[in-house]
Structure formats: structure tokens, C-alpha cells
Design brief:
The chain is of the alpha/beta class. It has 19 helices and twelve strands. A hairpin with a 6-residue loop joins strand 2 and strand 3. The longest helix is centred in the N-terminal third of the chain and has 18 residues. The chain is globular and about 75 Å long.
């Protein structure tokens, strides 16, 4: 496919996403099935345009003075994809697959006629209007920088599985060591119409020497600081990514109970643990009563709570524009529920960890302080001290509104957005 066909295809996918509210992964898959002639490079290029357009949907719409799917695709190709207007004009001349030629107005807009600096702050940050006050409250004068950082293309990080290999032993020449995690390797964000390597077919992955895991997720797993021989409960384990990281940090000694209320989300953990050689992981499918024998006996309970996923907007940009106040409210109710349930498993002197992949205070600090108010016998500890112990004083610093809890962001730590808090059971 030529450039014009790729842009037009991206516009068709964007129409499916923005007007029919189809999830972007499904929309891209459906387009690919309906256009079998498109090669893997074409599909990758189209996907890049679509994701770039969704990451910067508000700001591109403002700069183009048009938020139609075609305008978004054109704007993403130029403003994010690095293609010049002259290249589009040259490569689409006479191309019937491109549709109508660029108008003079579109050319002017693509050349920067409207400056983004003149836009309202929420548009400059590409944050939904209704959510902007929460961003301002959380990040104050850095709110625009933090929002804009969530519009960048993300890197791809992998974690060396210490049960089988160090990161120096991985055969990943195009990756470099992560800045904070001592077990991570990073493939830089793709440029232009490029794509990341297929890690799932890599020998290091197939032999269990590494797992795909964002550095932020690696960091919060390391902050749990689980020790060999301890008993750990991963209460919202999902696909088991953090359980696997904990097993490696524990030198595969002790017990990890990986539980999730959704057995479908939990299913991949069986195969992943086997491949990683993480024999201390015991997958515990629902119902929750299967965990009754652990009540009051667990050294460290990790609650990776269900959340809005704001911290992962770089990877799932369509979720940004689907998020509603009602959905946020439902997630907050779920967070209250899982914290109240999980605290019963912590033994006296044990630790309860609360983690989300959100950067919203309502899902993070507010939940922790509300839990401490309604629950006797728990004390908030300083996660900042744990950070310095694990990563040193010179490592990039996450956000902290209270000196105790931590918020990782693409702007501050160059990771996905994560929140981390640790509480000790004192009675």
C-alpha cells in the first residue's frame, strides 16, 4: 500500500472507533480481516496512525479545526508520524485510494496555521474536559506536561527473569538497560511507520528468560520487596505479571498465591509460571473462599486494584475518550471492596500494598486515606524510603503528594503511570 491508502485506511478505522465506539484493537483487527491484501508493514503503519490520532485526538482536532476521522488521520501522520506535507502531496498525487486531494485549508492547517499554544489547557494536554480539574489538582503547574507525556508513543520493556537469567545474559542487542529497574531492558518507541520486535517469538521469551513488562510494573513489584521464604498473596493477579516478578525477586523460595475474581483473566498465569520456572506460584481461581486458610497468615498482600487505567493511555489511547464519570465511580467502588476484602489476609506485622495503573488522586491517595479511616490496625508507611533503599537516591523521583505514597508517570519516571502505597498491620 502507498501512503495515501494507509492514511485512508486509518481514517476508516478511526471512524469505527470514534463514531461506533468500537475498541481500537477490535477495529484494527476487523479492518485487517476485511482487507487481506494488506501486508504486515501496512497494518503496522495504519495502526501507528490510528493510535497516534487517538493519543492526540483533542489537540489534532484543534490544530486541524476539524475532528473528523480523516482530519485526525492526516494530522497524526504529520504531527506525530513525522511525514511532511510535501511528502503527502507528492506521494498521494493521482492516488485513487487516498480519496479527495488535500484542500488548501488542510494544507495550511498541516503546515501549522493554528498554534497549539493558543488552545485551552485541557486540549494542550489531550485530557478530556471533564477530567481536567482532577489533573490540575493532582499535578498543579505540571498538569499540561504530565498530560502531554501520556500522548507519546510508549517504549516496550521486558524484564529479565532472575530465576533463569540476568539482564546481561539476555540476547537483546537492540534494547538498553532501563534507568530504574535493575532487571529491565527497553526497546525505544517506534519511529515513523516502524514496529517493535516480535518478542513472543524470541528465544529468550520462549525459554522463560524474560517477560514483557513495563518498567513501571517492574518497579512496583520490586517495591513490594518480598523476601525468600515469605508468604505473599497477589489478590488481583490478572494475568500474573506481578506474581512472576515477585517470584523472581523471592529467588523462587516461599509461597505466592495468585488470585483473581475473574478466572479468565487468571488463566494465562498457569502457562506463564511454568515457562518462567516460578514453581512457588499457586494459582487460586475463584471463589474467594478458596483463600480462607490464608486469613491472618500472609506476610505481604498486594492489591493491584481495578482502575480506570489512566496511566496506560499511551498504550490504550481509545480508553481515554471512552472513560466517563460513571465508570470512574464504579472503579472506585470496586477499589473499596477489594481493599476491605484483602486486609483480612494480612498477619500482624505484615504489609498491605495498594497499587493502581491510574494517576488520579480519587483512585489513589483518597482510597488509601479512606481505608485507614474506616479500618483499625493499619498504619501508612513511607514508600519513599523503600524507593531509595531499592533504587538509590540518584534514581528519577516519582510524584508524592504526601511524602509517603508514590505516583509514577511517563514525565517523571519515564514509565507507565502507577500508584504505590504500603500499609503495615499493627494489631
Amino acid at each position: 500500500m502507498r501512503l495515501g491508502g494507509r492514511i485512508q485506511a486509518a481514517a476508516e478505522v478511526l471512524e469505527d472507533v470514534t463514531q461506533r465506539r468500537t475498541p481500537v484493537t477490535m477495529a484494527l483487527r476487523d479492518w485487517g480481516k476485511a482487507h487481506r491484501f494488506a501486508g504486515s508493514k501496512d497494518r503496522s503503519a495504519i495502526g501507528n496512525i490510528v493510535l497516534d490520532a487517538l493519543r492526540r485526538k483533542a489537540s489534532i482536532g484543534f490544530r486541524m479545526n476539524d475532528d473528523s476521522p480523516r482530519a485526525l488521520a492526516l494530522g497524526a501522520t504529520v504531527f506525530s508520524g513525522g511525514v511532511t506535507v510535501d511528502e503527502i502531496l507528492e506521494q498521494t498525487e493521482g492516488d485513487q485510494h487516498f480519496g479527495a486531494p488535500l484542500t488548501d485549508d488542510q494544507i495550511a492547517k498541516l503546515r501549522g496555521q493554528i498554534e497549539l499554544e493558543t488552545a485551552p489547557e485541557s486540549i494542550r494536554a489531550d485530557v478530556p474536559d471533564w477530567l481536567w480539574p482532577a489533573f490540575e489538582t493532582n499535578f498543579d503547574e505540571d498538569a499540561i506536561v504530565e498530560g502531554a507525556a501520556l500522548t507519546e508513543r510508549p517504549p516496550m520493556d521486558v524484564r529479565a527473569n532472575a530465576i533463569k537469567a540476568t539482564r546481561e545474559q539476555l540476547d537483546q542487542k537492540s534494547a538498553s538497560p532501563t534507568n530504574i529497574s535493575p532487571v529491565g531492558m527497553r526497546f525505544p518507541p517506534v519511529e515513523g511507520f516502524g514496529r517493535h520486535p516480535n518478542i513472543n517469538a524470541d528465544t529468550d521469551f520462549l525459554t522463560g528468560k524474560m517477560e514483557i513488562q513495563d518498567e513501571g510494573s517492574q518497579i512496583v513489584s520490586l517495591l513490594v520487596a518480598a523476601k525468600p521464604g515469605e508468604t505473599v498473596l497477589d489478590y488481583c493477579a490478572g494475568g500474573g505479571g506481578k506474581s512472576l516478578a515477585l517470584a523472581a525477586d523471592m529467588e523462587n523460595q516461599g509461597e505466592i498465591h495468585a488470585f483473581d475474581i475473574d478466572k479468565r483473566r487468571l488463566a494465562p498465569t498457569y502457562e506463564r509460571a511454568m515457562r518462567a520456572g516460578a514453581s512457588i506460584i499457586k494459582v487460586v481461581p475463584p471463589p474467594a473462599k478458596s483463600l480462607n486458610h490464608l486469613r491472618g497468615r500472609v506476610d505481604r498482600v498486594l492489591v493491584d486494584a481495578p482502575c480506570t487505567g489512566v496511566g496506560t493511555w499511551r498504550r490504550k489511547p481509545d480508553a481515554k475518550w471512552r472513560l466517563t464519570e460513571d465508570a470512574l465511580g464504579r472503579r472506585m467502588q470496586e477499589q473499596v471492596k477489594v481493599l476491605d476484602e484483602a486486609q483480612h489476609f494480612v498477619k500482624p506485622g505484615g504489609l498491605l500494598f495498594y497499587v493502581t495503573c491510574s494517576v488520579l488522586a480519587a483512585e489513589n491517595e483518597a482510597q488509601v486515606y479512606a481505608f485507614l479511616e474506616r479500618t483499625e490496625g493499619f498504619e501508612l508507611l513511607s514508600a519513599g524510603e523503600v524507593w531509595e533503599e531499592r533504587f538509590g537516591v540518584d534514581a528519577p523521583k516519582p510524584w508524592s503528594s504526601d511524602g509517603c505514597t508514590l505516583t509514577l508517570t511517563p514525565a517523571s519516571t519515564h514509565t507507565d503511570g502507577f500508584f504505590f502505597a504500603v500499609m503495615e498491620k499493627t494489631a
